[in-house]
Amino acid sequence: MPKKVVIEVKNLWKRFGDRVILKGINLEIYEGEIFVIIGGSGSGKSSLLKHLIGLWKPSEGCVCVFGKDLTKLDDKELDRIRLKMGYVFQEGALFDFLTVWENVGFYYLEHTKLPKKVIRQKAIEILKKVNLDETVADLYPSQLSGGMKKRVSTARAIAGEGKIILYDEPTSGLDPITSRTIDELIVSLRDKLGSTSVVVTHDMISALKIADRIGFIYKGKLLEVGTPQEILNSSNPFVREFIEKGLMVIEKS
Ligand SMILES: Nc1ncnc2c1ncn2[C@@H]1O[C@H](COP(=O)(O)OP(=O)(O)O)[C@@H](O)[C@H]1O
Ligand SMILES: [Mg+2]
Question: What are phi and psi of 7, to 5 degrees?
Fold first, then answer.
């Protein structure tokens, strides 16, 4: 059976004045896969993710999600597509002044007239999917560990319809053990919800562990796309250098 393409990026260029951030990216992401974007700091990973959710508009080229060209949608249509997409920001970006359940149920609090009690219950159900329980519901983000914060932001990202989940550096700043539990969470959510996941990381261990396919970005160019095995066997010198550095960390840890 042919794979269904849910995100299609065609000849995407992004410029800020003279600076060229993304250079002619072409990419297809399939339904239900975990696609991991790797690359060094400043290579354009977060910028690419921001285009996938329509937060940034390309200078040239286009991004289609579920067959719709994001660059041609008005704000209302874009909102409707975004409902199907959850975004776990690099720094978690939880609202500090809201409790855990209010963060997770934020969409429902803002956009529906459901009673608070019902939304709180909904939020607790969603928290269970990321292996957190009711005891954290009334805490504030400042009372949580780094790993728990990531779980809560992941819960918020899947609170909508969760067809596509985008993660920006979900394991950065976490210790290796917590990082592995976040990796397992990403895989288990894909298995449970059948969602398509796009994960940005510079963590080679994570990438090899969770990816169906990996894309390597270098200075705004998508240099290589392949299965973890294909990436490991890549003959591209930039890919090799990145992998070897990443694997040195594996040997040390
Ligand atoms: N709003 C912006 N204006 C100008 N340059 C930006 C902006 N955001 C990011 N950049 C630049 O784009 C490049 C890629 O950034 P980014 O996508 O955040 O990289 P990564 O996530 O791979 O570390 C960097 O050189 C960064 O300085
Ligand atoms: Mg980044």
Answer: -130, 130
Q: Is 25 left (phi over 0), alpha (psi -120 to 50) or beta?
A: beta
Tokens of 63: 């991004």
- Residue spans of the chain under pLDDT 50: 253
Give the domain ranges of the chain.
1-77+198-253
Query: Which residue's alpha carbon is nearest to atom 3 within ligand 1?
Result: 16
Measure 171 CA to ligand 1 centroid, in angstroms. Answer: 19
- Using one digit for the tens of pLDDT, what is the confidence trace for 201-251? 988 888 999 999 999 999 999 999 999 999 999 999 999 999 888 776 555
Residue minimizing CA distance to atom 17 of ligand 1: 44
Taking the model in full, what pTM does it have? 0.90
Say what the alpha-carbon torsion angle 63, 193, 199, 108 is, to the nearest 10 degrees.
70
Handedness of CA 42, 182, 180, 216 (dihedral sign): negative
**CATH number attached to the domain at 1-77+198-253:** 3.40.50.300
Kindly report, residue by residue over 18-38, the tens digit of the pLDDT.
999 999 999 999 999 999 999
Nearest CA owner, ligand 1 atom 18: 46
**21 ligand 1 Cβ < 6 A:** yes
